[in-house]
Design brief:
By secondary structure, the chain is mainly α. Helix content is 72%, strand content 1%. The longest helix is centred in the N-terminal third of the chain and has 44 residues, at 16-59.
Length: 316
């Protein structure tokens, strides 16, 4: 057609160019607006997470006591890790606490979620969910004071109840044998409510039609749990196990307030050991080396779980 303008490409009308420019301008404006919205979060992420991690990696190769400028020592701190028996004791304690707390938190959290997910009056359901979740909202210090009173050997409520059924008092906080179980027991009581909420969300995401179809085929309660609930809850279970493992391996406040790592190093976790090296002995370089080893272990554990999840996690 005579007098018709064409674009850069054959058959493309010239009016397409302004539309493309407007679309590109809109995309740039939206991108700029998006970056502006996330900039406060990115600022805090960079300043309070990324920069400290990079600084810790640098400190690994230095001797720094906060009282004098750091000086380079090379691989000395990393070599010291291999001969530090206290560090391996703290890692063993953290591993035992992690195994116990992760297992019990997830099992009890799932059972609680299945319990409060059953049909019941709305007020009762609300009260039960609030009661189970309430310890999560309470400060660690106040809870630890209560638990120290509960676990005291001579005047503790728990030992009083044990004596009423004919058992001897247990030195929960002063015995090498019972220090770690005491920390695990306290952590489970405080944390299982959080996992209950996550498991409850996963249970409520399972389509009800699956249960109805299985009931029509004659499936009982155990069969519904075995073949529907447990397989479909595995994505939530995977997430809960990962976060509980990472959290339990970094336990600090629970053990610090309850036992202060004692008796001796019987309940001293690796996080407490890092704190001691950094802020009591002022060995920042070595503390950074221990923290780096903890970071490597946590990353390795997470990657191992991601690999293993392909064999047991089932998605719809």
């Amino acid at each position: 057609m005579a007098g018709m303008k064409v674009g850069r490409f054959p058959g493309e009308p010239a009016t397409a160019l302004p539309a493309m420019k407007r679309s590109m301008r809109t995309w740039v404006q939206e991108a700029i607006a998006g970056y502006l919205f996330i900039s406060p979060a990115m600022f805090f992420l960079i300043v309070f997470l990324i920069i400290p991690i990079l600084a810790s990696v640098v400190l690994v190769f230095t001797d720094y006591s906060l009282l004098a400028p750091p000086h380079w020592v090379g691989l000395e701190n990393l070599t010291r890790l291999l001969h530090d028996k206290r560090m391996f004791t703290c890692y063993r304690n953290s591993l035992l606490i992690t195994i116990g707390a992760t297992t019990l938190n997830n099992v009890i959290g799932l059972l609680l979620a299945m319990g409060v997910n059953r049909k019941m009056p709305g007020v009762l359901r609300y009260l039960l969910r609030t009661a189970f979740f309430f310890p999560v909202l309470t400060t660690t210090a106040s809870l630890a004071v209560v638990w120290r009173f509960i676990l005291t050997q001579d005047r503790g409520i728990l030992n009083y109840l044990l004596q009423q059924i004919g058992l001897s008092p247990v030195p929960w906080l002063s015995s090498v044998r019972w220090a770690i179980p005491s920390v695990v027991m306290y952590d489970v009581w405080k944390s299982c409510g959080y996992l209950m909420v996550l498991y409850l969300a996963g249970l409520q995401g399972i389509p009800e039609v699956l249960y109805e179809a299985a009931k029509i085929d004659g499936a009982g309660r155990l069969q519904l749990t075995r073949y529907i609930t447990l397989p479909l809850i595995t994505p939530t279970a995977f997430f809960c196990i990962v976060i509980s493992l990472i959290g339990a391996f970094q336990i600090f406040d629970n053990a610090y307030v309850l036992t202060e790592g004692g008796p001796g190093d019987a309940s001293r976790t690796i996080a407490m050991y890092i704190y001691e090296m950094a802020f009591k002995r002022y060995e920042m370089g070595y503390a950074s080396a221990v923290a780096l080893s903890l970071l490597v272990i946590l990353v390795a554990m997470t990657l191992l779980q991601l690999w293993a999840s392909r064999k047991w996690v089932h998605y719809e």
